[in-house]
Amino acid sequence: MRTLCASTLISEVLVIGFAGLVAMKDPDLSVTTVWTVCGIAMFLCVALCGMITRPGGVALGWVLQLALLASGFFVPTMFFLGVMFAVLWWASVHYGRKIDEAKARFAAMEDRPDAA
Length: 116
Prior knowledge:
mainly alpha
């Protein structure tokens, strides 16, 4: 699960950075505000890569996905990208857990002494 979720989060870092460049063109937003918010969000994505397997890590990922979706109020394209990354986050968590369970089953099978 960790690998899939981390790859999604690192992809989000790039998208947040590009969204920051687009948001800078909005005359109602100051450059300082844009890059402070984007910088914090980018840092949280990278920090969350190391916290995925800890308790609450997946929940924090969902909060980050909601924040990414909410950024669509400032950069409308982010509504679409926020939905896409929420789907990717769900898939990363869902299929990552299935992969982890399969790995655990295979490891248990290898540890069993062979009866033959």
